[in-house]
Description:
The protein has about 325 residues and is mostly helical.
Amino acid sequence: MIFYAVTRQKFIRIVALVLLFTIACTGEKGEKAKIRSTQVDDVIIRRFDVELFADYKGGFAQHLAALQDNFYPFLNSEVIDTSVVAQLHAFVTDEVVRELHTLTRDKFAGLTALEKKLTTIFRHIRYYFPDWKQPEVFTYVSGLYGDSPILYDGTFLLIALDWYLGDEYEGYRKAGLPLYRIRRMTPAYLHADIIKTILSQGIIPHKPENRLLDKLISAGKLYYLSGLILDDLQPEYIVGFHKDGLKWCKNNEKQMWTYFLEHQLLYATDVVLMNKFVADGPFTAAFQRESPARASLWVGWQIVAAYMKNNPELTPGQLIFVGPDEILKNSRYKPGR
């Protein structure tokens, strides 16, 4: 009888585990099926980086006029005046720019894979944020001008492909770009940059970030949602540093959190002080030189992840409106290391 009772208890536990596993798998498959059935248009990328530099035997002004209808984000005035023609002509004939164009053309000879990936990304965004409107997508050569390789205004998504030629490209160093930024100028970071730009510029509400806690949670939401939208995206691409940096954060998570608490930094408002924790650079100025830049923002990601784990009923559409204090309080965040 004792043997029977033990066997029966073991059998019940096994059945329970099987049922739990089946339910979990069914739920996962159910959500994935819903995402796959979410309607978006197949992405077709318009290549201003190719067409602008094409032969213009009939004259450059006529060349621009022929492109105007298909590339209105770049040529959006009704009449392209002579000053615009002169500026663009100087741009396309610049030696450095032409080198960037040639390398971009060769590096990104075809964008079918990117179009498919963007369609997948857009489908996930639409699933989690049903009111989101799908943008038209264009690629271009920027000449490395500007601060951001991805531009998004809710209608157009513009991708400067010359920012993703690979960290071995010597032209980046000649342009005076810092090494810590050059390391992220590879195709591997492109998908994450696109997702984060769309989220930060068009989905997550902009709120004042006067305290360090505000900055941690804002970044935490961005990173958490980026990983949700593209679940095969490696964490180091989301946060923008290499695997060694990710390993450092995991090994020093408890120490970072203890440091914040002991020095009462979460509610600090001094800009100079906060920049030591959140500014880009070769490392986080407030921590060891072995740390990656903005390591503290990775802590924000862990806080948001803990909050969502403790509040499984909350949707991404609701998360974006939850305040930092609420997230910190109900995350019950306690790093273990």
